[in-house]
Design brief:
Layout: E1 7-11, E2 17-22, E3 31-44, E4 50-56, E5 71-75, E6 80-81, H1 89-98
Antiparallel strand pairs: 1-2, 1-6, 2-3, 3-4, 3-5
């Protein structure tokens, strides 16, 4: 099964596992350009087992255009690259959902002002 977007995996300079889409046209021999990088967070559950979360490196809620992608430039000598991996479809789907376009919310009418006290 072919994945829609080819994800890469690496450890950043502080040891976090990062997923993202490689941007070949912005990558060089010294720089790895990554579109929409996300950090893989794994935490133990009280009842046993592990919980996996994929968190964006930068939250799109802070962007003027919520659907705009971010591209980050990593110095290759400061990261540890992983050989090509084929991810489970659930991990790929969770990543894609994280960066799916945001549906625009219709503008609501301004709320009516409720007077709490009579003006005298």
């Amino acid at each position: 099964m072919k994945q829609e977007h080819k994800l890469i995996t690496f450890l950043d300079s502080v040891g976090r596992t990062v997923l993202g889409e490689r941007v070949d046209e912005k990558s060089t021999s010294d720089i790895l350009a990554v579109k929409n990088p996300a950090v893989v967070a794994i935490s133990p559950q009280p009842q046993g087992g592990l919980q996996l979360q994929i968190l964006p490196l930068f939250f799109k809620e802070f962007l003027a255009d919520k659907n705009e992608a971010t591209v980050w430039l990593y110095q290759k000598d400061k990261i540890t690259m992983c050989e090509e991996l084929l991810f489970d479809f659930k991990l790929n789907a969770q990543y894609q959902q994280l960066f799916a376009p945001v549906a625009s919310q219709p503008q609501s009418a301004p709320a009516d002002v409720v007077k709490l006290f009579d003006d005298e």
